Structure formats: C-alpha cells, structure tokens
Amino acid sequence: MAQQDTDQQHAGALPVDDEGYVIDTEDCEEREAAWRERGTSRPITVVGNPVLHKECRDVTDFGEEFQQLVADMFASQRTAEGVGLAANQIGVDLKVFVYDCPDDEGVRHTGVVCNPKPVELPAEQRRLDDSNEGCLSVPTAYASLARPDYAEVTGQDEKGNPIRVRGTGYFARCLQHETDHLYGYLYIDRLSKRERKAALRQMAENEPRYPVVAND
Fold first, then answer.
1. What is the pLDDT of residues 18-70, one digit of tens each?
2. Domain range enclosing 43
3. Which residue, 132, 158, 164, 180, has fewest beta-carbon neighbours within 10 Å?
C-alpha cells in the first residue's frame, strides 16, 4: 500500500492505495465518532431554500472554524440518519461534504471531501443504475434515478491535502449526489417534471424525522 508523504501524514491525511485513491474504509467507527462528538447537530435546509440552489464557494481556509463545521456536519448527518451531507444542507455556502456510506458490498466508507470535481468516465465505462434515491433536503421523498454505478471525484481533505475518492454502487451514488449539492443541484432536478412533482408531493404529505429549517 502506497503511503502519502510525511507532511501529509502529519497533517492527518488518510493513506492512499497503490493507485492514489484515498483509503476511507479503515477505522470508520472511530473517525466518525471523533468528529461527531465534537460537533453540534444543526437542522437541515430543505428544497426551496436559496442556499441549495446555487453553486457554493470554494473552501480556502481550513482552520479551526472550518474544522468545527465539519464536526457539526457529521453530528447533523447522524441525527438525520443520512449517509452523506453537504454544507449547504445545514445552510453553509461552502464546497464540502461528509459521508459515512456503505457500498453495495457492505463496506463502510467515511470521509470528508472539499472542493470536489467529478471525473468524467469514458462512455464504455458508464453503466447506469436506476435505483431509488432520496435526499435529506427533500425529506420522506424517493424516486428512481439513473446514475453511473461507478464514480470518482478529486478534491481536498479537511486539511487541504489533495485527494482522489472512488466508489461503486450505493457509494458511487452518494459521491455524485453530494457533489451535485455543492453545485446547486438536488436529485429531483434530474427528474422529469412529473417525477419531480410526485417527489415534492411525497414530501408535502409526510413529516420529516429530523429537525428542518422551514422556508419563509
């Protein structure tokens, strides 16, 4: 297993594999708990809130205030029983998401991605999966949405170190979903008008199981 350089290890970066992808499957329970226990859970912003419908600002300051934001995001994700959470889902206009998500083999992945950029795959590698998708910002609603069953993103970790993250199946969907958030897109924006209306109707007919910020 290839290791990142000494400076990155001292900065708290996760190790990488022989192909340069971050290893986010080790010590997941301990790492998630360490973040969450330092954080304060915040209510979730829901569809219609302006912060969800515009591209977020790049993260440029990785200092103490930002570290507290990441901790709050892990705490908020746990309260809402989610597998991924973008900063604008708790009202913060910054390009960062956290995840604590299994892949289709049941392997748990936990990490932080700042300033993510999706890696475009060659057409021959794009196999679509049309599983159901939901979103904490569209509570209680689900819809089938075709996405590639493999995804890669590049970006930075919570310390500003460059990282590459890849995933398959459900985790691939999570990476794409959370990256979309930071560019101002909800999953329902990728649905047909009829399907979008149906999802919003599901949301209107049910009560969320976690605190949300009501839109004025």
1. 999 999 999 999 999 999 999 999 999 999 999 999 999 999 999 999 999 99
2. 28-116+126-211
3. 132
Tell whether the torsion through CA atoms of 70, 74, 80 and 82 is positive or negative: positive
Task: Give the residue from 100, 83, 116, 90 showing the smallest Cα distance to 183.
Answer: 116
Residue 135 annotated as binding site: yes
Q: Give the CATH number of the domain where residue 68 resides.
A: 3.90.45.10
**53 annotated binding-site participant:** no
Residue 122 and residue 90: Cα distance in Å, rounded? 34
Cα–Cα nearest to 85, from 125, 37, 137, 122: 137
181 is in an annotated binding site: yes
Give the C-alpha separation, 189 to 154, whole Å. Answer: 23
**Tally of domains within the chain:** 1
21 inside domain? no
Q: Is residue 182 part of a domain?
A: yes
Helix (H, G, I), strand (E, B) or coil at 74: helix
In a domain, 166, yes or no: yes
The residues pairing with 84 across neighbouring beta strands, listed in sequence order, are 99
Could you report the per-residue pLDDT of 100-140, keeping only the tens digit for each?
999 999 999 999 999 999 999 888 778 999 999 999 999 99
Name the band, by pLDDT with cuts 50, 70 and 90, for residue 9. very low
Which of 154, 139, 160, 43 has the alpha carbon at shortest distance from 92? 43
* Residue 172 phi, psi dihedral angles, 5° rounding: -60, -40
For residue 140, tell me if it sits in a domain: yes
**pLDDT the model gives residue 125:** 76
Q: Active-site residue numbers?
A: 178
Identify the three-state secondary structure at position 190.
helix
